[in-house]
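I am writing to request your help with a piece of structural work I have in hand. I am sending you one protein, given as its amino acid sequence and as whole-number tokens for its backbone shapes. Kindly check, if you would, that the fold set down in the tokens agrees with what the sequence suggests. You will find the record immediately after this paragraph:
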Amino acid sequence: MFGEFGYVTTALFALIVGSVAGTMAILTWDIFRESTFGTAIIGVVVAFSIFTLHHVFLLSVEPRPAEFRSYQALLNTVVVIFVGLMIRHRNRLRTTMEGK
């Protein structure tokens, strides 16, 4: 679709954004370390690290379309599950706080 230049450019952009996001998540975790939200932030840090390593892997290996589509689908599924759990947890906390 983009060609080799677009492929490398988007992978490098993802590496940079993933590194910055991981750093910001670690700094946020330092603030909320004692809360349940801080525990969730650790999950975000792990997810950012996995995505960053995924893009490093994409840069170092020639893409094999079927394998990478399967791997990308698995990563997207894990992200959707994690975000769903975070929304559920947030709603549960909100209803608990409104009840008090």
Observations:
- Helices lie at 3-31, 36-60, 65-99.
- DSSP finds three helices and no strands in the chain.
- The two ends are 54 Å apart (CA to CA).
- Residues 65-99 form the longest helix (35 residues).
